[in-house]
Amino acid sequence: MTSVPVHGEEDRLAEDGRRIGGASQASGDATGSAGGATGSAGGASRAIGDASRLSALLAQTPVVPVVVIDDASNAVPVARALVAGGLPIVEITLRTAAAIEAIGAVAADVPEAHVGAGTVLSEEQARTAVAAGARFIVSPGLDEGVVSAAGELTVPIMPGVTTPSEVQRAWNLGLRVLKYFPASLAGGIPMLKALGAVFRDVKFIPTGGISAKNLRDYLEVPAVTACGGSWLTPSSAIAEGEFGEITRLAAEANAIASEAKG
Ligand code: 3PG
């Protein structure tokens, strides 16, 4: 990684953003086959903007709701409910036919939200999601093609990892913020502490098996920068239009996160 001089708040956020990957790739810092996208200057600054914004949001509210939308008309009320509970980041998973329309609707109608695409398995899915309005990409695993596509699209990417070899591969692609998935099954907090002890400049977003019950314990691990999960948007609450319940769950998580990280 090329080291970048840091001066002042804007530069600090830009530096934080590089840790998430988008700006790193756009500025050509990333090494390996997937790195070094040669986007336009405008693309690079968008990457820095998006990565810095995401980084700032994660620092403020280190919780990433993982949302499964079956009916696109529910996307906007779900996003508004999360924002009302203090959680502006919304990861809409590409597991349903409605996902791309849902991302587009949130991007267009909920400017307070920061919408991204989850469960991105291919380069084509990454392109479709970003075209629809996704401002970050999350994958369950580490795939060089998807990382490279995110670099070309100049959006931050957080690929999933569970092992030291995967963390090392991601590190060599220039990435410093990684999803740790499925967290509870892959080794949970002891494994995150072990990985954090070795990969000192990598931060993790554990996802999978996180809830209000264990959120604080995960967030207190120094290597954990945020936690993700679907517990904030239960499918039953979405289907029944109980958006107040989603706001309640978001506010509860926000309060736990403030205590843990504050
Ligand atoms: C994900 O896509 O990140 C996981 O499905 C979320 O896991 P969870 O449902 O256990 O929160």
Polypeptide structure, described:
The protein is of the alpha/beta class and 262 residues long. The protein has a single domain, classed as TIM Barrel (Alpha-Beta Barrel), CATH 3.20.20. The chain is 50% helix and 13% strand. It has 13 helices and 8 strands. The strands form 2 sheets. Strands 3-2-1-8 form a 4-stranded parallel β-sheet, sandwiched between helices. A 4-stranded parallel β-sheet has the order 4-5-6-7. Strand 1, helix 4 (75-84) and strand 2 (89-93) form a beta-alpha-beta unit. Helix 4 packs parallel to helix 13 (243-261) and helix 6 runs parallel beside helix 7. The longest helix is centred in the first third of the chain and has 20 residues, at 41-60. Residues 1-14 and 22-41 have low confidence and may be disordered. 3-phosphoglyceric acid binds at residues 66, 93, 118-119, 181, 207-210, 228-231.
N- to C-terminal distance: 30 Å
From the alpha carbons, calculate the radius of gyration and give it in angstroms.
17 Å
User: Considering the protein shown, what is the CATH homologous superfamily?
Assistant: Aldolase class I
What is the level-2 CATH architecture name?
A: Alpha-Beta Barrel
Shape: globular
Number of strands: 8
Individual helix count? 13
